[in-house]
Design brief:
By secondary structure, this protein is α/β, with parallel strands linked by helices. It has a five-stranded parallel beta sheet, with helices on both faces. It has a four-stranded antiparallel beta sheet with strand order 1-2-3-7, covered by helices on one side. The protein has a three-stranded antiparallel beta sheet with strand order 5-4-6, with no helix packed on it. It starts with a strand and ends with a helix. It is 42% helix and 13% strand. It has 16 helices and 14 strands. This is Asparagine synthase C-terminal domain-containing protein. InterPro entries: Asn_synthase (IPR001962), Asn_Synthetase (IPR050795), Rossmann-like_a/b/a_fold (IPR014729). Keywords: ATP-binding, Nucleotide-binding. It comes from Halopelagius fulvigenes.
Length: 377
């Protein structure tokens, strides 16, 4: 097993020495010079035994009592040893070592648009297409990713009649792309939930509702012979794709008093989200490829002013402007639903819970149902 994923040792070592949080990678995690490392956005998960950082794995199922290495941390394999005091990248695991930059907004909005265009275009066009499929919802995020690999087949999952399947069909037709539909069933949910609980170490229904369609798309792609899956992860967080960002500061789900501040709050949620998504995809037999989370895109997106994130009812303004040169206008402008709702995964897991006797009047009725499936398995 490789001791480091996502980057070469020289690059990570230099980032440790300089404290550079965005050293030009798509994330990394592993062991370097007797230390565990995980990049500032946690794009590659890594766990170690709670009482022994020297025993670690990229897969929590390998460990008896796994805890996640926090994003941006350098931790000595010897729990009694300190990180080199002369290195800017210091930490004992109790706090971040690399900190996500918080730059001032672009003084010239056009410069911001240009930076995003260059970064996004370079990232999606640099993806190698060998052994690659694309997770495709019909939204602008996955469409931009798909545009960079025009020969890769696109996959969408959803229950019959779901928004994502309909949107993906429309977008694929507009882009003249091959689309393979993974039609979900109740049996898929019942059989897959216990596996994902084991993989993720989570029984939270929201996490499972998001992970289920990702995992099942990835599993079908793997069955079809693909070992890599391109995804649009990170676009909503970096470019202002959430309704709660659009409504800031009036939405109680965010603490920030500006759109830009609310978007940063969302970016800081990425480590937890990406651990879930990456583990779910790897467990299905594919390695995720997330070009919109490359350091160059992160660096271009962080200084975006509020008006390039949200403009009235339009979210992800800068990304959509970039997309207009890559995909049809109907796709660049398309709205999308969160995956758990767009695929009906949330609705149908709730329906299964109620059919099994876990009624909505019960506290946490879906999670109780999830735990019953785990117990039966």
């Amino acid at each position: 097993m490789s001791r480091l994923r996502g980057a070469d040792e020289r690059t990570v070592r230099e980032a440790m020495e300089t404290g550079d949080p965005l050293p030009g990678t798509a994330g990394f995690a592993g062991e370097v010079d007797g230390h565990l490392v995980r990049d500032v956005l946690g794009r590659h998960p890594l766990c170690h035994e709670a009482a022994d950082p020297g025993t670690w794995s990229f897969d929590r199922r390998d460990l008896a009592d796994p805890v996640s290495l926090p994003a941006g941390v350098v931790r000595s394999l010897d729990s009694d040893a300190d990180v080199d005091a002369d290195s800017p990248a210091r930490g004992d695991g109790d706090g971040p070592t690399w900190t996500l930059p918080n730059p001032d907004p672009y003084a010239d909005p056009e410069a911001g648009l240009d930076a995003v265009r260059v970064a996004v275009t370079e990232s999606v066009e640099s993806v190698e297409s060998d052994g690659l499929a694309v997770a495709f919802s019909g939204g602008v995020d996955s469409a931009v990713v798909a545009a960079g690999v025009p020969d890769a087949p696109c996959y969408v999952a959803g229950f019959e009649g779901s928004h994502d399947v309909a949107a993906a069909r429309e977008a694929a037709a507009a882009m003249d792309r091959e689309l393979r539909v993974v039609e979900l069933t109740h049996d898929d949910l019942r059989e897959t939930v216990p596996e994902l609980v084991s993989v993720l170490g989570r029984t939270n229904p929201m996490d499972l509702q998001i992970a289920l369609p990702l995992h099942l798309v990835a599993r079908r792609a793997a069955e079809d012979g693909f070992d890599r899956l391109a995804v649009g992860q990170g676009a909503d967080e970096l470019f202002g794709g959430y309704a709660k960002v659009q409504k800031a500061p009036d939405d109680p789900r965010v603490a920030a008093d500006t759109v830009r501040g609310a978007a940063r709050e969302m970016v800081l949620t990425l480590p937890d989200q990406l651990e879930r998504d990456v583990l779910a995809l790897r467990a299905a037999g594919v390695e995720p490829v997330a070009p919109l989370l490359h350091d160059r895109v992160v660096e271009a997106a962080l200084p975006l002013p509020g008006e390039l994130l949200v403009d009235g009812e339009t979210r992800k303004v800068a990304l959509r402007e970039t997309a207009r040169a890559m995909v049809p206008e109907s796709v660049a402008a398309a709205d999308k639903k969160a995956v758990q709702y767009g695929t009906y995964a949330a609705r149908e897991l709730d329906r299964l819970a109620r059919r099994a006797g876990f009624k909505r009047r019960m506290d946490d009725h879906v999670e109780k149902y999830v735990k019953s499936l785990v117990a039966e398995a």
